[in-house]
Design brief:
Blueprint (H helix, E strand, L loop, with lengths): L44 E5 L5 E5 L17 H54 L16 E3 L2 E3 L1
Antiparallel strand pairs: 1-2, 3-4
Length: 155
């Protein structure tokens, strides 16, 4: 797929094989002398001789101190959230109760106004119909007997 370089044919490529070199404990090295260092500037170096004769040298590490725990509050956050949710729910319920009471009172008031209007209007109609016969006003119509013979009106 890729063109080969003219000077490097596949048969001419060199293959390199690497073999690991085993470590043999041939020489026992004496531990390095401890050097006193000013405190706070450079940490002290420690050397340890292992049972097989190897020497490990490194810095001494002080153990990690865990961070102090923050004091726990007297009441957990979950309890505070539940309490605040309950207070909010009660506030909403109280508002809905007031709204329902207001709507019921408004409905009763409108019903009373309609009833009052019906009573007043009905009374006015009754007075108009059943009023005194001496005080009549309007057009007087005289009705006489009419005769209809053979689909003809004789008035």
């Amino acid at each position: 797929m890729y063109p080969e370089h003219p000077g490097h044919l596949p048969a001419e490529r060199a293959v390199t094989t690497y073999q690991p070199t085993p470590i043999t404990p041939a020489v026992v090295v004496q531990p390095a002398p401890l050097v006193s260092v000013q405190p706070g500037a450079v940490p002290s170096v420690a050397s340890i001789v292992l049972p097989d004769g190897r020497i490990v040298t490194g810095y001494a590490i002080s153990p990690m101190q865990p961070e102090p725990l923050a004091p726990k509050p007297a009441v957990s956050r979950a309890a505070v959230n539940v309490a605040l949710g309950g207070v909010g729910f009660l506030a909403v319920c109280g508002g809905l109760l007031l709204l329902t009471s207001f709507i019921a009172a408004l409905t009763a008031f409108i019903t009373q106004l309609i009833t009052l209007a019906a009573v007043i209007f009905g009374g006015w109609i009754a007075v108009q119909i059943l009023g005194s016969s001496s005080h009549r006003s309007g057009t007087t119509v005289n009705i006489r007997r009419a005769v209809i013979k053979r689909n003809k009106f004789y008035g």
